[in-house]
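Journal club side-thread
Mid-discussion, someone asked how the predicted structure for our own chain would compare to the paper's figures. Pasting it here so we can look after the session.
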Amino acid sequence: MTDPVRIVLIGLPGSGKSAVAKGLAERSGARLIDTDHEVELAVGRPIAELFADEGEAAFRDRELIALREALGVAEAAVIATGGGVVCTETGRSLLRQHRPVVFLDVSIDAAVARVGDGRSRPLLGGDPAGRLAALAAERRPLYEEVADVTIVADGRSPRGVLDALEAALELDT
């Protein structure tokens, strides 16, 4: 018996992970798991409040729990991760153990257009363009380290990204 496929999406905030994961789950019939949503369900409040009350480290701990649980589900799943899931060795190790991992690569300009003022995203508030540029510099090598496939999201709708992802992974949905 083969393990069910769990496709994991990684990338910067604004790369389209949630939208693409939703579309792929709908097309394939796989379970949709958004680790940010799972963290919010577990703590009973928005991530922005968790950041404000307990800090980023507390969020990262909960994010790893959500990732570990998502990767352990019994059925096929499409998993949208938070943009910083690659920031710890534990996160990268979990990702390396499960394939495929898809990096949705997006330019800073495209990400800024998608996230707007960034108020709902704790790491982006105040200066989304500057913060995204700093996050990209820090995280891009980590995304590339764990990704099996990179899909450029610039200039593509979520559907276009989804089509490219399906072609790259040779999925038959």
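Post-session note: The chain has one domain: 6-169.
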